[in-house]
Specification:
This protein is mostly helical. It is about 70% helix and about 5% strand. The chain is built from 18 helices and 3 strands. Strands 1-2-3 form a 3-stranded antiparallel β-sheet. α6 runs antiparallel to α7 and α12 packs parallel to α14. The protein is globular, with a radius of gyration of 21 Å.
């Protein structure tokens, strides 16, 4: 997979070679990341394999970054995710109404974790009698919501003209994921949007209506879906009693995903514990799942590199927003959509960081926005 993506990125680079522009600041940051992570590997006596994957992802992302301007990237990404959203919702609805149709015409896939899905190429559908969820082609609804909400953010806050039909499509798609993180982040993003578009009094009334509708609908939701969405969170601050309870595994994983990187940072504030060190801690003392992307940077590479790798989220928050209050709310939104998944060696997420770093150049940011 890495080789395939690397080849595609290189071809993209060749096709757009005449339009290549080297951003010196971003190039300097990329080289600094490679140098510091190499030092981290040496200090923690770690093998090079995990770092090699990270460097390949970083290099691949950089090739895309210098090949495609940020405005084009946003446009391409929204188009891809809109197609994915429409396709996955239609497939999901067919499974709900006529599951035998899916069973008859599409093959089964089983991943290394034993998860069984129907393969519809542009989307996957779980084979389960528990809860039907829409994972897109990401295998995990919690991952799908990240990309859907990122596209929704671009539609609402970055594009010049707001398309309310697209907003409706994305809201429906996110609802079908049955992702707790996705639901929270969606409500939060809609709240920011309403606050920006309407006066405070009207925004407050709309918010109250939304809360009333949610409470009304919640009573009609089956109990297993209620538990999947919110009931498990009632034990969030009762970590000791749920640590060994498989029913609350998802909740425990999210708590550990924050706790372990913090523990790693305390052990080595300057260089962290590295990829292997933090992973060993998670396996030895917990479920072995490092789900909080922004916290992992600190646990892997220490305070200063963790701060650097989180900074692009703030730069993205200010991309089309001069009001610091709204920029801060958008920054919280970005943290919400990545806190439940590990994107630390995900080439696309690294690409998002690189585009974020490019916004350090105010002239380029103004030019791209125009």
């Amino acid at each position: 997979m890495l080789v395939s993506i690397l080849v595609i990125s290189f071809l993209t680079f060749l096709v757009n070679f005449k339009d290549i522009r080297i951003n010196v600041k971003v190039l300097t940051i990329v080289l600094s990341i490679v140098m510091v992570t190499f030092i981290v590997a040496l200090i923690n006596s770690e093998g090079i394999y995990d770092y090699l994957i990270f460097w390949i992802a970083l290099f691949t992302a950089y090739l895309f970054f210098i090949s495609i301007p940020i405005k084009k990237f946003i446009d391409y990404f929204v188009k891809i995710m809109t197609f994915t959203a429409v396709f996955s919702v239609i497939a999901f609805m067919i499974q709900v109404v006529s599951p035998q149709t899916i069973e008859r015409f599409f093959p089964l896939l089983v991943n290394t974790s034993g998860v069984t899905v129907y393969n519809l190429f542009f989307t996957l559908l779980y084979k389960t009698d528990y809860i039907l969820m829409n994972p897109g082609f990401f295998w995990e609804p919690g991952a799908y919501q990240t990309f859907l909400l990122l596209a929704l953010f671009f539609i609402m806050f970055v594009r010049n003209k707001v398309n309310y039909v697209l907003i409706g499509i994305y809201i429906v798609t996110i609802i079908t994921t049955v992702s707790t993180a996705g639901y929270f982040a969606l409500v939060f993003l809609l709240l920011i949007f309403v606050l920006k578009k309407f006066r405070l009094a009207k925004s407050f009334m709309l918010f109250l209506i939304l809360v009333f509708l949610f409470v009304l609908i919640y009573d009609f939701i089956p109990s297993n879906i209620q538990f999947r969405l919110f009931n498990k969170l009632f034990k969030f601050f009762d970590f000791s009693s749920i640590k060994d309870n498989p029913i609350y595994e998802s909740t425990v994983a999210r708590i550990e995903g924050i706790l372990f990187p913090i523990r790693a940072l305390i052990k080595n504030p300057i260089f962290g514990l590295g990829f292997n060190g933090l992973s060993r801690m998670a396996v030895d003392d917990g479920l072995g799942l490092l789900t909080a992307t922004q916290f992992n940077w600190f646990g892997y590479f220490g305070f200063f590199m963790g701060l650097l790798l989180n900074y692009p989220l703030w730069l993205w928050s200010k991309y089309n927003e001069r009001n610091k209050f709204y920029a801060f709310l958008i920054f919280i939104f970005f943290n919400l959509i990545i806190i439940s998944e590990n994107y630390n060696r995900n080439g696309f997420f690294i690409l998002i960081l690189l585009y974020g770093f490019s916004l350090l150049n105010k002239e380029e940011r103004r030019e791209e926005h125009e």
